[in-house]
Each structure stands twice: as structure tokens, then as C-alpha cells.
């Protein structure tokens, strides 16, 4: 009886892991992460409505789903199971991306007007610049060292911060600038963690990411520096009475993130490592929920 129970528990865990892996590969996790980021930004900015988080979550899911169509060559090496599905069902993937983006855009227009919609579309514009050959040499910005990460991190920092501001009709002030910079640093770190996972495919297809050019050990040192900068920003925000509690609640999450960064590249299970990295933002989302 005990052996059967242990067997059933093992099966349940395997099914849960498969479900989480599916959610990560098919961009459900990316949508949830973006929504959680936005929820924490809302807690810092004093925006109570849940709609900005819904908007950014939908837009994120749509953009990353569409990006899968542009990254088939690299993904065939890095995530072959997912890449094969995208290659076999391009119309389904494209339809899902367009439909989800249209829903997010409609909610942005209906709830916040044209400014909210414009800010929500920033990741789409960045994705087009990222994936199309727009440089003088005909290269994609994705293939240009440094430009790829800067573009992605800046786009998501502006969106995560700007959609709540526009939706709430708030002006840009020192706190908003600090929040945007905080999420720029966090997004930069996350992008490069995923680039470590994808280093083999990127190197094979000529994509010059930071891990490809500098190597994983130096990338880890650079990201640790960025972790320290974002921690300093969070401590600075703690001096502002209106956001002190949210900033304080995020401190353990940044400690968790720094611990992960310290071991970047030390495991062969980078999919699980990236999922653990994504969990950082889900924890920030829980901090935001606790303050509502």
C-alpha cells in the first residue's frame, strides 16, 4: 500500500512538472510574470485597479508567442520540443498571438484611452525592432551585442511602469522614474539569465548575447552588480513613506534573486533554473496582493 502511495505521489509530481514545463514553454508563465511585475509596480505607484496587470499580462503573452515564430532557428537548438510545435502549427501560434494582443489592446483602449494603449504597444514595437533586419548591415538588433538586452529590458520597464501610470492618470515623478529604473535592472538580469540557457543556440546562429561574448562567469559577475544596484534603488524607495512598505516586502525577494544569480551556470538544468528566476516576479506579485 505504501509503495502504491509513493508511486502515485511520484506520478503526481511528474504531471505537475510537465504542466509547469508546458506553461513555461508556451508563454503562459511569461504572461503571468508580466502581470505580477505590473502588480508590484502598481503597489509602488499607488494604483489600485487590477486592469493594468491584466493588460500587460495579455500583451506579454502575445509578444512572446509571436516572437517564437521569429526565433525558430535558435529555438530548434535551445527548446526543440517547443520549436517543433511552433513550426508545425504556425497559423495556430500566429492566431493566438494576434487574438491575445487584440484583447489586451482593446482593454487598454477601453479602460485607459489612447495613451494607455500606446504605452501597452511599446513591447510590440520593440519586438519588431528586435526581430527584423533594421541595422545598416542588415542584421537584427537581436544579433547585436548589448543592443538586444537593452532594448528588451527598456521596453518592459517602460510598459510595466507606464501602463499603470497612464491608466491611473498619474504624472511622471521621481518615484515613477525610480520604479522604471528598478524594473529595467530586473528585466536586464532576467533576459541574460535566459540567454545563459540559450547560449548554445545563440552562438550557433550568430546571436551575440552577453553570455556568448563574455562567457557565463563574467556574465554572472555583471548581473551580481546589477542585483546590487537594484537593491540600492529599493532601499532608496524605502525612504518614501508611500512606498516604504512595498519596498520592504520586496527585500527578501531580491535576496532570493541574488542567491540564484550567484549559482548561475552551475546547473545543467537551466529550464528549471529559469523557472525559479521567473518565480521572483510571482513573489513580488504576492507582495503586491498582500498590500491591497
Automatic annotation (TrEMBL):
<keyword id="KW-0812">Transmembrane</keyword>
<protein>
    <submittedName>
        <fullName>UbiA family prenyltransferase</fullName>
    </submittedName>
</protein>
<dbReference type="Pfam" id="PF01040">
    <property type="entry name" value="UbiA"/>
</dbReference>
<feature type="transmembrane region" description="Helical">
    <location>
        <begin position="246"/>
        <end position="265"/>
    </location>
</feature>
<feature type="transmembrane region" description="Helical">
    <location>
        <begin position="85"/>
        <end position="109"/>
    </location>
</feature>
<feature type="transmembrane region" description="Helical">
    <location>
        <begin position="222"/>
        <end position="240"/>
    </location>
</feature>
<keyword id="KW-0472">Membrane</keyword>
<dbReference type="GO" id="GO:0016765">
    <property type="term" value="F:transferase activity, transferring alkyl or aryl (other than methyl) groups"/>
</dbReference>
<dbReference type="InterPro" id="IPR044878">
    <property type="entry name" value="UbiA_sf"/>
</dbReference>
<dbReference type="InterPro" id="IPR000537">
    <property type="entry name" value="UbiA_prenyltransferase"/>
</dbReference>
<dbReference type="GO" id="GO:0005886">
    <property type="term" value="C:plasma membrane"/>
</dbReference>
<keyword id="KW-1133">Transmembrane helix</keyword>
<feature type="transmembrane region" description="Helical">
    <location>
        <begin position="115"/>
        <end position="132"/>
    </location>
</feature>
<feature type="transmembrane region" description="Helical">
    <location>
        <begin position="166"/>
        <end position="185"/>
    </location>
</feature>
<feature type="transmembrane region" description="Helical">
    <location>
        <begin position="39"/>
        <end position="64"/>
    </location>
</feature>
